[in-house]
Amino acid sequence: MLTQLINTSGISIGLIGTPETTSLLETAFQLARRSLGLQYNALNNDEYFSGFCELLYKYQYVQKYTEITPQIIDWLYEHSGGVTSVVVSLIHDAQEIAILTAYETLDITMLNQGYDQMYFDIKAFFSPDDDPAGAFVLTPMRWGDDFAA
Hints:
- α4 (about 45-55) packs across α5 (about 70-80), α5 crosses α6 and α6 (about 85-100) crosses α7.
- This protein is mainly α and about 150 residues long.
- The model is unreliable at about 130-149 (pLDDT under 50).
- The radius of gyration is 19 Å and the shape is elongated.
- It has helices at about 1-10, 20-25, 30, 45-55, 70-80, 85-100, 110-120, and strands at about 125, 140.
- It has a two-stranded antiparallel ribbon.
């Protein structure tokens, strides 16, 4: 049905989904041959991720500009799992709260506050690692996994 819709519509259709949808799209030859295979995966906590964070952190709209630190980069990785869209949202939401509360500084305090206020709905999709040092590592859960600890 999907192939027929694409063939008869006369317009270009972009198929977008999570990694779990790849197997569905690859089952039909007509869909698989049209696939570009462009995938954005979570980044590793390395120089590339640090560079991404450093570049993004320059776009501050608060009144008091702050420089990014290695601790902030580590915090961003721990709370995003390396997913770039989550990093962007974390920085955006922290700035929004900083401006609305007249704090006007982007720092760990605002990042924590933004995470606590704005990400209560996605925290269920990540589970903390049992690290005795208390580090919080996000581990993505798969659809259908039991959310009970």
